[in-house]
Amino acid sequence: MPDTYLNSFLKFLAEKKNKDDSRLPSLNELSKSTGTSIPTLREQLEVARAFGFVEVRPKTGIRKNKYRFTPAVTASLSYAIMEDQSRFDLFADLRKHLEDAYFVEAATLLTAEDIQSLRFLIERARKKLNTSPIVIPFYEHRDFHLLMYSRLNNPFVIGLLEAYWQMYEEAGLNRYTDISYQQKVWQYHERIVDSIQQRDFSISRKALLEHMILIQQREEKSDVKNHFE
Fold this sequence. Notes:
Elements: H1 8-16, H2 27-34, H3 38-50, E1 54-57, E2 61-64, H4 70-83, H5 87-109, H6 112-129, H7 138-148, H8 155-170, H9 179-197, H10 201-221
Antiparallel strand pairs: 1-2
Helix pairs in contact: 4-8, 5-8, 5-10, 6-7, 6-9, 9-10
């Protein structure tokens, strides 16, 4: 059973199926409901907060958050990379295959407003690249990719992708300033959007994969390990 891995508070939280952002009982009430001492309950509450399941504030009390996979992945991934920095490359490879596997499904769900937002990100990125000195459009790059998969009703896919971009920034890869590389990236992004809008998903997927190869080649030339030190 899944509850084998849950402490008493997490079991209570999952079984009650409180609506997201709903206020939970006080610690005293939770202690009675779960049969757990206050000190133990506080420890369990910290675990739930670390996973992003709850939010604790002085005036509003304990509130249940909407489920997100990202906090758990990010915590585990941060530990894994701190222990062995080469694991970032392994996770980046996982992300590449994940985006490829879900690309067509995700692209078919995008709305006209999403397409417009993707084009806005391309325009904003190019404006940054045309400044002097150039400004690396990292956040536009991150938002572009996350928006493409945002319509998927799968918190685990979204969580893995969000965790990748958080680690990407921590690795220092958002500071790569080769203007030729940056321009090529956004040319690919434009090709992806153009073909999605035309409902030609085979062409857009091909552009995505070529874009991934471009990024991989750049990362192989970068000394990623030094950025973690």
